Amino acid sequence: MAMISGKADDLIVGEAGAVEAAACLFHGFSDRSRLTIVQHLALGEHRVVDLTGHLGLAQSTVSRHLACLLDCGIVTVRAQGRASVYALAQPKATLELLAAAERLLGLTGDAVVLCPRYGNAARP
Question: Which residues form the HTH arsR-type domain (predicted)?
Answer without folding.
Answer: 14-108
